[in-house]
């Protein structure tokens, strides 16, 4: 089927309100679903690097990070992107970015040993201060999350058979490893997947979560005191080597989703979404997305009339309008990370510098 024909069919169905369509991805229509209308627009990232993380401050201000030391900023909703490479960091893989405004943001690079670093900028990316440099040869940072611009956590693979969580309360000037007496016992091989920078999440003044993988059980670590002490909860998502959780989406009133799957197996559909109704203390299976393979990243969509979550992975992106019970396919292009400021302003990022702005509308 030719591109033009598929594009015409997609838009015809879209106008007929039988399906929603992505204008840029003619494969990305949503069969048999009049429930949500989707529009999308490809944006010029000015890079070909693999982009792995996005931090959406508001509908205009968005930060993105990726491989080859790449970080990006837009102040106009993606009409124009400033793409830069960290001087001296051209080999770093920035798999997480956490931003608070147009000037202040953190970058986390992932890799074995000294390739794992944390930087901070307070001048919109013009300069960066190195705040943490991994000093364990086997250490590997995966993701970070913050309660505010001064207090946050960073999570990495277990070191010396103990869980590895860093905490800062001074804006990153010091990152202190949390002692083993304040952490659950690590599973053999337990770590994380530095897929989208969303394997850690925070909410409110004190709650936080970390999604783990590669252990016998896929677990969620949770804290209720700003990361000072932690407990663990087992989820029903598949565990084991190269399996487990990659991302956490915090909804509201204690409801949240933890997602992942079999990493590297992009052709199978598995039970890879778990839901909690009690702030992560207990977990049950939620619905299975339409897309094949694992989920890499996710985002709540604020401002929708229902509990709406967008999930992405190597097989594309799906949206759920009911807190993860059912899923609707949106696109079948590969994406690694997603973030939304509102239903009208969401960004998906992925390989070859891919950035797409999406908007959703509930048509039920």
Note the topology.
Blueprint: H1 3-15, E1 36-43, E2 51-56, E3 62-66, E4 70-74, E5 82-85, E6 93-99, E7 105-110, E8 117-121, E9 129-133, E10 141-146, E11 152-159, E12 162-168, E13 176-177, E14 200-203, E15 207-211, E16 219-223, E17 231-234, E18 243-250, E19 256-262, E20 273-276, E21 284-285, E22 297-300, E23 309-313, E24 316-320, E25 328-331, E26 337-342, E27 345-349, E28 355-362
Antiparallel strand pairs: 1-28, 2-3, 3-4, 4-5, 6-7, 7-8, 8-9, 10-11, 11-12, 12-13, 14-15, 15-16, 16-17, 18-19, 19-20, 20-21, 22-23, 23-24, 24-25, 26-27, 27-28
Task: Explain briefly what this protein structure is.
The chain has 1 helix and 28 strands. The protein is mainly β and 364 residues long.
Overall geometry comes to: globular
The number of helical segments is 1
Approximate strand percentage: 35-45%
Which strand order does the major sheet show?
Answer: 1-28-27-26
SSE sequence, one letter per element: HEEEEEEEEEEEEEEEEEEEEEEEEEEEE
Beginning-to-end CA distance, first to last residue: 31 Å
Number of strand segments: 28
Q: For the residues shown, what is the average pLDDT? A: 91
Unreliable segments (pLDDT under 50, ≥5 consecutive)? 1-32
Q: Radius of gyration over alpha carbons?
A: 19 Å
In terms of structural class, how would the helical and strand content be classed? mainly beta
| Helical residues, percent | under 10%
């Amino acid at each position: 089927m030719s591109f033009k024909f598929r594009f015409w069919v997609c838009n015809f169905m879209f106008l007929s309100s039988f399906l929603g369509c992505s204008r840029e991805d003619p494969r990305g229509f949503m069969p048999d679903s009049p429930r949500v209308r989707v529009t999308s627009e490809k944006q010029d990232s000015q890079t070909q690097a693999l982009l792995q993380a996005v931090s959406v401050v508001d509908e205009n201000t968005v930060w993105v990070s990726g491989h080859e030391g790449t970080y990006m900023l837009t102040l106009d909703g993606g009409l124009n992107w400033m793409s830069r490479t960290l001087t001296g960091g051209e080999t770093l893989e920035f798999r997480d970015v956490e931003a608070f405004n147009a000037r202040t943001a953190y970058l986390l690079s992932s890799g074995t040993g000294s390739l794992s670093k944390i930087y901070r900028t307070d001048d919109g990316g013009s300069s960066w201060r190195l705040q943490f440099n991994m000093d364990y040869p086997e250490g590997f940072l995966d993701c970070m999350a913050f309660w505010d611009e001064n207090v946050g956590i960073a999570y990495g693979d277990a070191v010396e058979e103990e869980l590895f969580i860093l905490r800062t309360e001074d804006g990153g000037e010091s990152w202190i490893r949390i002692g083993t007496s304040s952490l659950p016992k690590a599973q053999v091989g337990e770590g994380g997947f530095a897929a989208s920078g969303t394997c850690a999440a925070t909410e409110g003044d004190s709650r936080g979560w970390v999604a783990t993988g590669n252990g016998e059980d896929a677990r969620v670590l949770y804290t209720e005191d700003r990361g000072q002490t932690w407990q663990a909860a087992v989820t029903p998502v598949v565990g084991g080597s190269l399996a487990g959780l990659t991302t956490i989406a915090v909804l509201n009133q204690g409801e949240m989703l933890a997602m992942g799957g079999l990493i590297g197996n992009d052709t199978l559909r598995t039970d890879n979404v778990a839901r909690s109704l009690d702030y992560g203390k207990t977990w049950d299976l939620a619905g299975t997305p339409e897309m094949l393979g694992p989920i890499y990243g996710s985002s709540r969509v604020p401002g929708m009339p229902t509990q709406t979550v967008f999930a992405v992975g190597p097989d594309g992106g799906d949206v759920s309008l009911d807190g993860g019970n059912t899923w609707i396919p949106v696109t079948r292009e590969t994406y690694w990370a997603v973030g939304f400021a509102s239903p009208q302003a969401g960004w998906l990022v992925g390989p070859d510098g891919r950035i797409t702005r999406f908007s959703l509308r509930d048509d039920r």
